[in-house]
Specification:
By secondary structure, this protein is of the alpha+beta class. The protein is built from eight helices and seven strands; from the N terminus they run H-H-H-H-H-H-H-H-E-E-E-E-E-E-E. Helix 1 runs antiparallel to helix 2, helix 3 runs antiparallel to helix 4 and helix 6 packs across helix 8.
């Protein structure tokens, strides 16, 4: 049994460096300014293991150095979706996104909706779920003291503590839900074609609506006949071929 265990450990000790080699090779290639090779290595590392924010961040940086702005934005977005609490990713995403050709004014949103989105990015989905569970537990403790407290002061502490815990529990669960949508919804996409004409219908001969460029974030809607209906940041709706964009939350690519 001991020999078998030692054999398994020896196999793992050999195989683990192999799994890590693609990422490490990508780091070396990036340091040597060989950005095409770095891109190849980081993509291979993604194929070999689970997607990580670190890998997407490095892949995005390699694409940016290789002058591929759309794919740099796409992969910074993916890194940000996995870990929205990372300030470096957020800064670089904003920096790179500011360099796209199309400067569209986004449609106005309610302040409360924007606030919830911003706050939900403070922590990861896991942290919000843990906080929600903690505050729910404190709510149960408050209810217990309110009904079973041996003195008026204990019941008052249970009541007011329970009210605060209830509010915080509801708030953290809302933020957890917003965080879940941010990391799981599959509607937002990045245009990857350098120049693209948005059509009025799913047909190559349809009327042209507007010309847009790679790197622009859009919201996908229905799909028909090889085309997908998209909504641009300014609210314009039109159709583009399916191969001209990449869904952000598709971590298999």
């Amino acid at each position: 049994m001991r020999h078998k265990l030692l054999y398994i450990i020896s196999i793992l000790s050999v195989s683990l460096p192999l799994f890590a080699s693609s990422f490490e090779d990508g780091v070396v290639a990036y340091s040597d300014a060989d950005y095409p090779k770095a891109i190849e290595c980081f993509n291979k590392a993604l194929e070999e293991g689970a997607p990580t924010a670190e890998n997407y961040y490095n892949l995005a940086s390699a694409y940016y150095k290789n002058n591929d702005l759309p794919l740099a934005i796409l992969n910074f977005e993916r890194a940000y979706r996995i870990d929205p609490s990372d300030g470096d990713t957020r800064f670089n995403l904003e920096l790179v996104s500011s360099q796209i050709v199309d400067d569209m004014e986004p449609t106005p949103r309610l302040f409360l909706s924007q606030w919830f989105d911003q706050v939900s990015h403070w922590f990861s989905l896991f942290v919000w779920r843990v906080l929600g569970l903690i505050f729910f537990t404190l709510l149960m403790v408050g209810i217990f003291f309110y009904f079973r407290g041996r003195s008026i002061s204990q019941r008052q502490i249970g009541f007011y503590g329970g009210v605060v815990a209830l509010v915080l529990s509801v708030l953290t669960n809302i933020l957890a839900y917003r965080s879940y949508l941010f990391t799981h919804e599959d509607k937002e996409a990045i245009l990857i074609s350098s120049v693209l004409t948005v059509k009025s219908s799913p047909d190559a001969s349809a009327k042209d609506i507007v010309v847009v460029h790679g790197g622009l974030k859009v919201v996908t809607q229905q799909t028909l006949s090889g085309y997908t209906e998209i909504k641009l940041p300014d609210g314009t709706v039109g159709w583009v071929p399916n191969n001209t964009f990449e869904i952000i939350n598709n971590f298999t690519h």
